[in-house]
């Protein structure tokens, strides 16, 4: 099927708009996740993020919003993206397996009271699932950002933000919007 370019762009933007309208009616999990992050940070804990591909980019983006600032000046907040240390990622993948790249870092760095945010559009990426399992075993709180199905992550998360789409890029668009809202709510609590 040969869809004219303008129609294709408009259809994609309208789909994004419909997705966000549906997501706006499902705000509860975002509020609960922000509460967990605020509680963890107030208790002296930190927020860890992990994900693959676009979700790796989201992980470092969101961690930087907390260690730096989102909109306002306030104390730095403890956050680490487990996606950015190329030496750790390559060594763990090479010596153990790619499935272990986040879980091993969680076991190295995670402490009870911390929060792990796992980001996956399918909810089934094995390294993110393994990281959530490791986090639960250590007593971390777990937050998921997934697509509508939730995948295997749904049952491993204290709260799972399941955005209303099954299309990877459309899901990612809502993930970063939800992530920004999390940062806004967390920042407000520390102003
Ligand atoms: O950004 C994109 C697609 O928009 C890709 O890089 C995407 O993140 C990768 O294919 C990931 O490996 C997908 O993994 P997941 O979201 O299912 O956990
Ligand atoms: Zn992408």
From TrEMBL:
<keyword id="KW-0963">Cytoplasm</keyword>
<feature type="binding site">
    <location>
        <begin position="52"/>
        <end position="54"/>
    </location>
    <ligand>
        <name>substrate</name>
    </ligand>
</feature>
<comment type="similarity">
    <text>Belongs to the SIS family. GmhA subfamily.</text>
</comment>
<feature type="binding site">
    <location>
        <begin position="94"/>
        <end position="95"/>
    </location>
    <ligand>
        <name>substrate</name>
    </ligand>
</feature>
<feature type="binding site">
    <location>
        <position position="172"/>
    </location>
    <ligand>
        <name>substrate</name>
    </ligand>
</feature>
<feature type="binding site">
    <location>
        <position position="65"/>
    </location>
    <ligand>
        <name>substrate</name>
    </ligand>
</feature>
<dbReference type="GO" id="GO:0097367">
    <property type="term" value="F:carbohydrate derivative binding"/>
</dbReference>
<feature type="binding site">
    <location>
        <position position="172"/>
    </location>
    <ligand>
        <name>Zn(2+)</name>
    </ligand>
</feature>
<dbReference type="InterPro" id="IPR004515">
    <property type="entry name" value="Phosphoheptose_Isoase"/>
</dbReference>
<keyword id="KW-0614">Plasmid</keyword>
<feature type="binding site">
    <location>
        <position position="65"/>
    </location>
    <ligand>
        <name>Zn(2+)</name>
    </ligand>
</feature>
<dbReference type="GO" id="GO:0008968">
    <property type="term" value="F:D-sedoheptulose 7-phosphate isomerase activity"/>
</dbReference>
<dbReference type="Pfam" id="PF13580">
    <property type="entry name" value="SIS_2"/>
</dbReference>
<protein>
    <recommendedName>
        <fullName>Phosphoheptose isomerase</fullName>
        <ecNumber>5.3.1.28</ecNumber>
    </recommendedName>
</protein>
<dbReference type="GO" id="GO:0005737">
    <property type="term" value="C:cytoplasm"/>
</dbReference>
<feature type="binding site">
    <location>
        <position position="180"/>
    </location>
    <ligand>
        <name>Zn(2+)</name>
    </ligand>
</feature>
<feature type="binding site">
    <location>
        <begin position="120"/>
        <end position="122"/>
    </location>
    <ligand>
        <name>substrate</name>
    </ligand>
</feature>
<feature type="binding site">
    <location>
        <position position="61"/>
    </location>
    <ligand>
        <name>Zn(2+)</name>
    </ligand>
</feature>
<feature type="binding site">
    <location>
        <position position="125"/>
    </location>
    <ligand>
        <name>substrate</name>
    </ligand>
</feature>
<comment type="subunit">
    <text>Homotetramer.</text>
</comment>
<keyword id="KW-0119">Carbohydrate metabolism</keyword>
<dbReference type="GO" id="GO:2001061">
    <property type="term" value="P:D-glycero-D-manno-heptose 7-phosphate biosynthetic process"/>
</dbReference>
<dbReference type="GO" id="GO:0008270">
    <property type="term" value="F:zinc ion binding"/>
</dbReference>
<keyword id="KW-0862">Zinc</keyword>
<feature type="domain" description="SIS">
    <location>
        <begin position="37"/>
        <end position="191"/>
    </location>
</feature>
<keyword id="KW-0479">Metal-binding</keyword>
<dbReference type="GO" id="GO:0005975">
    <property type="term" value="P:carbohydrate metabolic process"/>
</dbReference>
<keyword id="KW-0413">Isomerase</keyword>
<dbReference type="InterPro" id="IPR046348">
    <property type="entry name" value="SIS_dom_sf"/>
</dbReference>
<comment type="pathway">
    <text>Carbohydrate biosynthesis; D-glycero-D-manno-heptose 7-phosphate biosynthesis; D-glycero-alpha-D-manno-heptose 7-phosphate and D-glycero-beta-D-manno-heptose 7-phosphate from sedoheptulose 7-phosphate: step 1/1.</text>
</comment>
<dbReference type="InterPro" id="IPR001347">
    <property type="entry name" value="SIS_dom"/>
</dbReference>
<comment type="function">
    <text>Catalyzes the isomerization of sedoheptulose 7-phosphate in D-glycero-D-manno-heptose 7-phosphate.</text>
</comment>
<dbReference type="InterPro" id="IPR035461">
    <property type="entry name" value="GmhA/DiaA"/>
</dbReference>
<dbReference type="InterPro" id="IPR050099">
    <property type="entry name" value="SIS_GmhA/DiaA_subfam"/>
</dbReference>
């Amino acid at each position: 099927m040969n869809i004219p370019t303008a129609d294709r762009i408009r259809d994609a933007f309208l789909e994004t708009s419909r997705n966000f309208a549906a997501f706006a009616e499902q705000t509860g999990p975002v509020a609960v996740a922000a509460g967990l992050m605020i509680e963890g940070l107030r208790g002296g804990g930190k927020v860890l993020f992990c994900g693959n591909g676009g979700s790796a980019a989201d992980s470092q983006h969101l961690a930087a919003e907390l260690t730096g600032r989102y909109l306002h000046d306030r104390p730095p907040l403890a956050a680490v993206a487990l996606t950015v240390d190329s030496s750790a990622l390559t060594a763990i993948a090479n010596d153990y397996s790619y499935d272990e790249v986040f879980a091993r870092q969680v076991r190295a760095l995670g402490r009870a009271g911390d929060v792990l945010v796992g980001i996956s559009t399918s909810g089934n990426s094995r390294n993110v699932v393994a990281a959530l399992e490791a986090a639960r075993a250590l007593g971390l709180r777990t937050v998921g950002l997934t697509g509508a199905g939730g995948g295997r992550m749904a049952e491993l998360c204290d709260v799972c933000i399941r955005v209303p789409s099954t299309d990877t890029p459309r899901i990612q668009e809502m993930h970063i919007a939800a992530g920004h809202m999390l940062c806004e709510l967390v920042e407000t609590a520390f102003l």
